[in-house]
C-alpha cells in the first residue's frame, strides 16, 4: 500500500524519534510525564501532526493511507505512553473537528493543535461510563449564548497538560444517542486551569510517560459557537472519531509487537541454557514464527480497513476487528516473549516488560474487547433481537 512518498514520511518520523524522543524515554517514564508542548511543537514544526488534515489549517492534506504510515512509524517509540499521547493529538481528539467543525473553530483550535502550539485531550469516558458512551452524565446546559458544563471525565490522556478538550456532553433531550454534542472546551487561561476546572492525576499500571487525569467541571462556561457541528449529533460524531482512534491504536501496536519479537529473537540467540542458545529450541523459534505471522496478518487487516475508509465506505467492522485482534495479540506476544527472557523479563529495566505493561491497555481503552465483539456481531446480524 505504501509508495516511496509514504516511506519517506516514515523515515522523517523515525529520524525525529531518534533525535527528540528516544534519548529521554527513561527519564519520562521515571517522571511519569513527558513535556508534551515541547515534543508536539517539534512534531508540528515538521508538519507531522496534521498529515491528513486540511492544508488551509496547517495540515499536509494527504490521504488516509499516509496517516496509517505515520501511525506505523510512531509505533517505533520505545514506550507506549508517548505514542498514545501523540495519537490523541492526531487521531482521537481532532478528526471530528476537522470533519464537522466550523471554519472559526478550526482556526481557533485545529490550526494551533496541528502546529503543536496547543495540546488537546479527549473528554468522553467517565467513572461510570467507559465503553458505554451513551451513559455519560456530564451536562452542557444552555444559558444565554453559553453552555454551562457540570460533571467529570475519567482516564483523560494529556489531561494535566492539555490546553483544550474535545468534550462529549449531554446538551438536552431523552434519546441517549441524540442528546449529546461535541464541544471544544478551553481548559486554561494564561497557563492556569480555568475557574471551575479541577484535576487529579491517575497512577497507572503502564503507559507511565503519559499523564492521565480525572477532570471535574463545576459551572464551567463555554460559548455555544464552540460546539462541533450540529447539536445532538455528538454521539454520532464520536462514533466516527472512534474508528480512526481504533485503527490508529492497532497500527501503532503492529510496529511495537514486531519490535518485541525482534528483540526477543536477539536476546534468545545470545542467552545460553544447557549448552545451547534458547533460540535453538524448536518450541521457541516455532512460537516466535507463529507470533510474527499473526502480527503480519493484523497488518494486512489494518491496510484493508484503511483502503475501505479511503473509498468513503464504513470501516467500522474492519476497524473493530483490527482493534480486537491487536488487543489479543498484545497480550499473547508480550507475555510469550517475556517468558523467553526468563528472570530478566520480570524486571522493570527492559523493553519487553515495558511493552507487557503498556500494550495491555488496547484491550480496554477506546472500547473494550467485548465492545468490539458486540460491534462485529451487530454487523454479522447475530445479536439477540437483531436477526
From TrEMBL:
Pfam families: Acyl-CoA_dh_1, Acyl-CoA_dh_M, Acyl-CoA_dh_N. Transmembrane segments: none annotated. Residues 121-220 form the Acyl-CoA oxidase/dehydrogenase middle domain. Keywords: FAD, Flavoprotein, Oxidoreductase. Residues 3-117 form the Acyl-CoA dehydrogenase/oxidase N-terminal domain. SUPFAM superfamilies: Acyl-CoA dehydrogenase C-terminal domain-like (SSF47203), Acyl-CoA dehydrogenase NM domain-like (SSF56645). Its cofactor is FAD. InterPro entries: Acyl-CoA_dehydrogenase, Acyl-CoA_DH_CS, Acyl-CoA_Oxase/DH_mid-dom, Acyl-CoA_Oxase/DH_mid-dom_sf, AcylCo_DH-like_C, AcylCo_DH/oxidase_C, AcylCoA_DH/ox_N, AcylCoA_DH/ox_N_sf. Residues 232-380 form the Acyl-CoA dehydrogenase/oxidase C-terminal domain. The keyword Flavoprotein applies. Belongs to the acyl-CoA dehydrogenase family. This is Acyl-CoA dehydrogenase family protein.
Amino acid at each position: 500500500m505504501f509508495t516511496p512518498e509514504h516511506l519517506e514520511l516514515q523515515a522523517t518520523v523515525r529520524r525525529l524519534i531518534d533525535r527528540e524522543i528516544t534519548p529521554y524515554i527513561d527519564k519520562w517514564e521515571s517522571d511519569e510525564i513527558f513535556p508534551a508542548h515541547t515534543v508536539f511543537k517539534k512534531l508540528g514544526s515538521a508538519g507531522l501532526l496534521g498529515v491528513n488534515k486540511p492544508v488551509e489549517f496547517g495540515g499536509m492534506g494527504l490521504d488516509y493511507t499516509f496517516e496509517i504510515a505515520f501511525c506505523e512509524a510512531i509505533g517505533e517509540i520505545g514506550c507506549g505512553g508517548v505514542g498514545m499521547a501523540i495519537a490523541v493529538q492526531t487521531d482521537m481528539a481532532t478528526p471530528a473537528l476537522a470533519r464537522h467543525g466550523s471554519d472559526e473553530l478550526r482556526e481557533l483550535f485545529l490550526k494551533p493543535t496541528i502546529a503543536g502550539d496547543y495540546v488537546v485531550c479527549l473528554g468522553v469516558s467517565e467513572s461510570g461510563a467507559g465503553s458505554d458512551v451513551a451513559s455519560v452524565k456530564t451536562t452542557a446546559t444552555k444559558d444565554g449564548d453559553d453552555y454551562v458544563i457540570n460533571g467529570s471525565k475519567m482516564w483523560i490522556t494529556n489531561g494535566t497538560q492539555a490546553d483544550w478538550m474535545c468534550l462529549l456532553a449531554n446538551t438536552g433531550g431523552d434519546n441517549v444517542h441524540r442528546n449529546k454534542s461535541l464541544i471544544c472546551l478551553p481548559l486554561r487561561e494564561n497557563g492556569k486551569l480555568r475557574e471551575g476546572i479541577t484535576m487529579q492525576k491517575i497512577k497507572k499500571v503502564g503507559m507511565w510517560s503519559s499523564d492521565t487525569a480525572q477532570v471535574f467541571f463545576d459551572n464551567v462556561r463555554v460559548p455555544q459557537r464552540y460546539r462541533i457541528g450540529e447539536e445532538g449529533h455528538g454521539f454520532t460524531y464520536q462514533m466516527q472519531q472512534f474508528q480512526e482512534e481504533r485503527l490508529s491504536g492497532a497500527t501503532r501496536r503492529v510496529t511495537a509487537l514486531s519490535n518485541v519479537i525482534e528483540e526477543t529473537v536477539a536476546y534468545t540467540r545470545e542467552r545460553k541454557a544447557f549448552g545451547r542458545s534458547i533460540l535453538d529450541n524448536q518450541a521457541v523459534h516455532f512460537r516466535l514464527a507463529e507470533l510474527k505471522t499473526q502480527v503480519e496478518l493484523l497488518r494486512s487487516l489494518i491496510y484493508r480497513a484503511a483502503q475501505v475508509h479511503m473509498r468513503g465506505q464504513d470501516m467500522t467492522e474492519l476497524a473493530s476487528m483490527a482493534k480486537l485482534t491487536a488487543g489479543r495479540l498484545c497480550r499473547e506476544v508480550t507475555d510469550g516473549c517475556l517468558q523467553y527472557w526468563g528472570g530478566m523479563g520480570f524486571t522493570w529495566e527492559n523493553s519487553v516488560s515495558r511493552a507487557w505493561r503498556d500494550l495491555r491497555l488496547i484491550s480496554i481503552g477506546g472500547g473494550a474487547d467485548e465492545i468490539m465483539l458486540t460491534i462485529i456481531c451487530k454487523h454479522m446480524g447475530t445479536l439477540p433481537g437483531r436477526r
